[in-house]
Amino acid sequence: MLAIAIVYFVIMPTIFVACFAWIAVDIQRIKRLEQGGHVCHAEIVKLGTSGHTRPKFYFITYRFEASVAGQKAIVLYTRKQSIGWKTYKHLKTAKEIIVKYDLGNPNFSRLSGQDADYSGRLLFLLIGLPIAIIWFGLLFQFVKAIYR
Known about the structure:
The chain has 148 residues and is of the alpha+beta class. It has 3 helices and 5 strands; from the N terminus they run H-E-E-E-H-E-E-H. Strands 3-2-1-4-5 form a 5-stranded antiparallel beta sheet. The longest helix has 35 residues. It is elongated, with a radius of gyration of 20 Å. The relative contact order is 0.19.
């Protein structure tokens, strides 16, 4: 009974909160990029898929040069981003994309312009919502069992 209570009251809510916290942080970073990010061209290193799983998840790996605000040295950054099927299909023939990066932290960047894609949030919603539904269903059963 203790193990079940730990799953219901600790593990599942933690996963649920983590998924939605990730989305909230991502939204905040994207807003910061929209307000003051720097736009540059990036080279497509790789377009890929999650393999044979259903649903398929798509991603892009890209490389760009940037300097951190206040520094003169230019550094090569390689980043990976989840993308949707339409963006994947569109970029299959492209060699270069436009990205926007945070001047204070170029490690945070996103596809920009016509290639902008925020599908990564959907992945966490796809994970978080079923967990929440299962959690509430199991919690209901748990509470019902206590009051019997």
